[in-house]
Amino acid sequence: MKEKMKILLNGMFKENPVLILALGCCSVLAVSVSVSGGLGMGAALTFVLVCSNVVISLLRNIIPSKVRIPCYIVVIATFVTLVEMLMEAYLKSLYDSLGVFLSLIVVNCIVLGRAEMFASKRGVADSFFDGLGMGIGYTMVITGMSVIRELFGSGTLLGYRIIPEGYQLGILTQAPGGFFLFGCAMAILVAAMAKKGKKFEPKMGCDGNCAACHSNCDDRKEAEAK
User: Fold this and answer.
1) What parts of the chain have a pLDDT lower than 70?
2) In this structure, what are the phi and psi dihedrals at residue 156, rounded to the nearest 5 degrees?
3) DSSP type of residue 170
4) What is the CA radius of gyration of the chain?
5) Is this model's pTM higher than 0.85 or not?
6) Judging by beta carbons within 10 Å of its beta carbon (0-12, 13-18, 19+), is residue 35 exposed, middle or buried?
7) What does the angle CA 20 – CA 23 – CA 26 come to, to the nearest 5 degrees?
8) Are 189 and 181 in contact (CB under 8 A)?
């Protein structure tokens, strides 16, 4: 269980998909203008990550290596379609606000990256916690940015007026404000890790344990050296 918790916490902090691995940034910057949108996008991506990781881990010994990426996309697209149908039926306003970014989860670098680098090489339990940790890490970032951008940019929080009109920093709801907050959040996390003596060295889930992930790190290192 200790190993499972380590995998979970890695996705949230040490290997945070947005701030450390710099994946899925497009949807974070675009959707984080409202808290409801950030929470909805985070929940949708977490659901797809967990379910696709589990299914791909179950099928990892069946999927042919040459067609693994198309197979991964089919699995991911199935869960994305399910999320879209449920959200359109029961949360229509949220579905409309997320727009095309909900469909683009199919090709989100976080989902495809974890399928290729982790779920296809590890067991079901590990893949479940990896997907959950990465999803929570993504949700933490997009929700935190959403709170700041909606509160100080629009003066509202979940649609309720908090700051009187005329006192907002409108630039926070625009692209420059999003990039500025993203950079600040990344700097804060990296600084916090450095303060604890942890070297900033993202590895996309590779811990060097080749027996566990069925890869040959020595061959990879020789290829990189050439």
Assistant:
1) 197-226
2) -125, 165
3) G
4) 19
5) no
6) buried
7) 125
8) no
